[in-house]
Amino acid sequence: MSVRVRFAPSPTGYLHIGGLRTALFCYLFARSQGGTFLLRLEDTDRSRFVADAEEDITTCLEWAGLVIDEGPHLGADYRQSARTALYRQYAKQLLDVGRAYYAFDTPEALREMRGKGRTYDRETRHKMRNAFTLPEHAVQAWIVAGRPHVVRMRIPERNTVRFTDAVKGPVAFPVHGLDDQVIIKSDGQPTYHLANVVDDHLMGITHVIRGEEWLSSTPKHILLYNALGWEPPVMAHLPLILSPHGGKLSKRSAARLGIPVNVRDYRQQGYEPEALVNFLALLGWHPDTAQEVFSREALEQAFTLDRVAPSPARFDLDKLRWFNQQHLRLLGPDEVSRRIRAQVQASFGAVDPAYLLRVLAVVGARMVLRKEIITTYAYFFRDPEEYEPRGVKKRWKADSAGLVRAYADTLEQVEAFDAGVLETALRDLAAARNVGAGRVIHPVRLAASGTTAGPSLFEMLEVLGRECCAQRLRRAAQVLGT
Ligand code: GLU
Questions:
Q1: Is the CB of 45 under 6 A from ligand 1?
Q2: Cβ of residue 80 lying under 6 Å from some atom of ligand 1
Q3: Given 288, 292, 425, 427, which residue has the most CB atoms within 10 angstroms?
Q4: Residues 94/228, Cβ–Cβ less than 8 Å
Q5: pLDDT tens by residue, 377-389
């Protein structure tokens, strides 16, 4: 039997980071098994429908490299709003065999019932307005007359629903206290429970992989599978994602901590999809080695459900930044330059691709986010606009202008303009002037880049080139003076 896994978001907003983690685990499991990854849109709740959510979901999945094999945008009829007739057909089947019934309770009656602390269970159902308490002809007449009604599933008189979750292990839920679930709402739309079960069955889903918040729905689903005479798929509930300080990572707590909520925000902030995928994979899954950095392909090979931890995973933005740095290194200068070229050109005008590659060779391994190329490392593309005041205060001494001018003279004369030669020349100059090398290095760096931190000074100077360096050094000596 070939593995089929679905990601089943509700298009009620943009894809959030927890949603992408779920999609990723579905995808990785499908790929690890040579199976199929489906996208299904659970859009029956029209009151919460967001028109551009579907497009955002597919765009984000594509950006993350999660290739969808079957989905509504690929021609499959996987939008629940277009499948209402199917759900009604199965509700009818349940009605026919007595596993579901019509109920006509008004909102007030339901409120009153809840007010008394009751659930709509096998005792209460005999006190409410439904097919248990009304004669058959009245039920039919009321339906024909269009009286508002729902269809409820009859929770059987069994005590406990048991299943083995592929992540959580054996789970037992007491049926006691469970409402007779509404499966068709008064507007004729199915509820999540019915549509979800019918679709998972009809779409041949073998493994339901979803967030832990759905665990409490699973017994209802198992009862529906039983009532419909179907074999339930394997269930796997992924651990909660916690905020860095503990507690569930909610939209609000994320916003407070400056953690982007939507996947599109990570994309806009310039995270590499490979890094986000790697980071998210380790929010709940762990390999059997100490390896942390994985390409998507490696994850597809290594992933197994039995290495998904049942305990919650903590979201750590610094860790994501670390992964981003690792992946920028893995991607290498050619790929990174391909990804940043447009941004660089938009900021600085036409840039020689070979020059961009040389810059990346020097700073690539230091970059955490690729956009640093146009912020932190802008000095490779234009003269520094100012000299970092704190750096000047600390590093620019009375003799700095003289030393920097002298080094500019040297730069103009050295035969080969390469890092090794430049370093020797600087050390020779320092020795001749009887000062420590740092006395020259720091002001030169400030003069050439405007800042005190950065990559190897001599590699940086080599990339900037002879004329640029000489001109920047002389200008700084003049501007900063003594
Ligand atoms: N539509 C549900 C969601 O928004 C799907 C839950 C499930 O995977 O069953 O997450």
A1: no
A2: no
A3: 425
A4: yes
A5: 999 999 999 999 9
